[in-house]
Design goal:
Layout: H1 5-36, E1 39-41, H2 42-51, H3 65-77, H4 92-104, H5 118-124, E2 130-132, E3 140-143, E4 146-149, H6 150-163, E5 169-171, E6 191-195, H7 201-213, E7 216-221, E8 231-236, H8 244-254, H9 276-281
Parallel strand pairs: 1-2
Antiparallel strand pairs: 3-4, 5-6, 6-8, 7-8
Helix pairs in contact: 2-8, 6-7
């Protein structure tokens, strides 16, 4: 029997309202489920992945244990990490396991460097944890005739503002094999060399201090250390596109070392170590 037009309209309205209610309830449930998931603090996790492999002991990076445990548990469940290494310590074994996981996603090169990037960490956490305090190096850009990423460019701009003078680059990032003396530190992102031509001793120290304040592991390099001219070497802490060698330098910086193969004591100005993100929140 064909329903009168008015009755048909009412039936359709009731059906639409019912389906809308079901959809809204489902969406609300999904939102509640997501809110109930534990959080992985990406800033803390990346920091641990740089420092822990360089430690002489199993000391945990402050504030990172809970997040690192969630990441290690997910790696264990994906058969990338043996259960005995699920301990909240993001050492070299966990870095290697994370790199294997990244490669399983089809990532390669700097995207599979063992540091948790935004994309890989979010995929690892699907249904398990949510990612907060995201670190993003941004896209590659040109500054001063050299390639860096947007995060590094912004950090350099702020260091220049603090210093009150320009900083001229001698070498940029993403430059594999460009300088044999750099030991691969410039192969990835976040690393630059800065000219000190025309600077006196005090200005050189002030430049290193400004770079450190905004989140670089930075040192003044001299010809006595190796076959290179005077310059400042700076590596952006927690840049997730860092080469393995640059990751090690930053870990050493946190441990009070000079970032060289000798692993001697840090010879730069003393400042509170912070990332770019921490500097912006100060």
């Amino acid at each position: 029997m064909k329903l009168p037009a008015r009755a048909a309209a009412l039936t359709a309205a009731v059906l639409f309202t019912s389906l809308t209610g079901v959809y809204e309830a489902s969406a609300a449930t999904q939102t509640a489920d997501a809110a109930a998931l534990p959080s992985v603090n990406m800033e803390a996790t990346v920091k641990a992945a740089q420092i822990d492999p360089r430690r002489p002991d199993s000391t945990l990076t402050p504030g990172a244990k809970a997040s690192v445990l969630l990441v290690e548990q997910a790696l264990r469940d994906g058969s990338f990490l043996d259960a005995k290494w699920v301990d909240g310590y993001f050492g070299s074994t966990t870095v290697t396991a994370y790199a294997k996981y990244q490669k399983s996603l089809g990532l390669s090169g700097l995207d599979a460097n063992g540091l948790p990037g935004k994309t890989s960490l979010t995929k690892l956490g699907a249904g398990r944890f949510k990612v907060t305090d995201v670190v993003d190096p941004g896209t590659r850009v040109s500054t001063g005739g050299f390639v860096v990423n947007t995060r590094t460019r912004n950090m350099l701009a702020e260091a220049k503002r603090l210093l009150g003078r320009d900083l001229k680059l001698d070498q940029g990032s993403y430059n594999p094999g460009g300088d044999p003396t750099s030991a691969g530190t410039h192969d990835g992102g976040g690393v630059v060399d800065i000219s000190v031509k025309g600077m006196n001793s005090a200005t050189r120290t002030a430049a290193v201090r400004a770079l450190r304040l905004v989140g670089f592991a930075a040192w003044l390099r001299s010809p006595q250390q190796d076959d290179w001219p005077w310059h400042i070497h700076a590596a952006a802490i927690s840049d997730t596109s860092l080469s393995g060698q640059a990751q090690h330098q930053i870990g050493d910086y946190y441990l009070g070392l000079n970032g060289l193969a000798s692993r001697g004591p840090d010879d730069g100005p003393k400042v509170s170590i912070r990332t770019w993100e921490e500097y912006q929140r100060r």
